[in-house]
């Protein structure tokens, strides 16, 4: 991993495993965490976006498998968001933002991700409410476009919306979000590849590390895992990264 000095490789790898573990445990791919980590270690923007999308593909699919096996996945809640988000994520992946604009927008999204980890958007489960199809489609499109442009999967945004509106339980929202992240990341990666014609080789070096954390997180998260202390630490790191991006 030529981007990192030998002494930083182990620190980065350990942090990457922890991030993949925590995000996978709640049905997320971890892109916001990966992007925050890469910004702290001064990765080039050209590598950050494709790397986050690629890692999302692996970690979110692992998380989905664990939640699916526990019968938490509800297809009728997934399809409305996916139908609108997939083409939007493809368009977003094709768009290359100016570096300064990218960092500011990403920084704002990371603030949201940090607050999510701090429990600000951990809404209590409500009695199940029937999904509003037009609203779900518009939400899916907006999240998909943002996901493709930034290199995130959108689950960090979708899951609290599902809980707030009473459309899914905590475990159901995790299952839906994990597959939502996978399809968005796939579309975003395809759009990025068609636009840039290549994927940095450095992105692939990170996959085995994230997969290890994702497998552990999916296994424990689909059960009854909850570690508030680790989430607080990760939230603080992401918040610091967001400040660094917005105010360089």
TrEMBL record:
Transmembrane feature ranges: 9-27, 47-68, 77-95, 101-123, 135-168, 174-195, 204-223
Bilayer disposition of the protein: Multi-pass membrane protein
The keyword Membrane belongs to this UniProt entry's keyword annotation: yes
Pfam families per record: TauE
Predominant localisation class: membrane
InterPro entries: TM_pro_TauE-like, TSUP/Inactive_protease-like
An annotated GO cellular component: plasma membrane
Keywords of this entry: Cell membrane, Membrane, Transmembrane, Transmembrane helix
Cell location: Cell membrane; Membrane
Lineage: superkingdom: Bacteria
Family the UniProt entry places it in: Belongs to the 4-toluene sulfonate uptake permease (TSUP) (TC 2.A.102) family.
Record protein name field: Probable membrane transporter protein
Organism: Flavobacterium johnsoniae (strain ATCC 17061 / DSM 2064 / JCM 8514 / BCRC 14874 / CCUG 350202 / NBRC 14942 / NCIMB 11054 / UW101)
């Amino acid at each position: 991993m030529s981007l990192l000095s030998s002494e930083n490789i182990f620190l980065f790898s350990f942090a990457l495993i922890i991030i993949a573990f925590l995000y996978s445990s709640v049905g997320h791919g971890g892109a916001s965490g990966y992007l925050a980590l890469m910004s702290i270690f001064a990765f080039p923007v050209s590598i950050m976006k494709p790397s986050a999308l690629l890692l999302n593909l692996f970690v979110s699919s692992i998380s989905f498998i664990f939640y699916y096996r526990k019968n938490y996945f509800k297809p009728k809640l997934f399809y409305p968001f996916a139908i609108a988000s997939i083409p939007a994520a493809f368009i977003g992946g094709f768009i290359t933002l100016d570096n300064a604009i990218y960092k500011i927008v990403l920084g704002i999204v990371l603030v949201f991700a940090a607050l999510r980890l701090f429990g600000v958007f951990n809404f209590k489960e409500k009695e199940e409410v029937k999904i509003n199809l037009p609203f779900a489609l518009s939400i899916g499109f907006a999240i998909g476009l943002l996901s493709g442009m930034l290199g995130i999967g959108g689950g960090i945004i979708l899951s609290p919306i599902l809980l707030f509106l009473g459309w899914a339980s905590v475990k159901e929202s995790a299952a839906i979000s994990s597959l939502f992240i996978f399809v968005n990341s796939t579309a975003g990666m395809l759009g990025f590849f068609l636009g840039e014609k290549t994927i940095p080789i450095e992105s692939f070096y990170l996959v085995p590390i994230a997969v290890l954390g994702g497998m552990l997180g999916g296994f424990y998260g689909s059960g009854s895992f909850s570690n508030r202390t680790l989430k607080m630490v990760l939230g603080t790191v992401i918040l610091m990264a967001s400040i660094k991006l917005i105010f360089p």
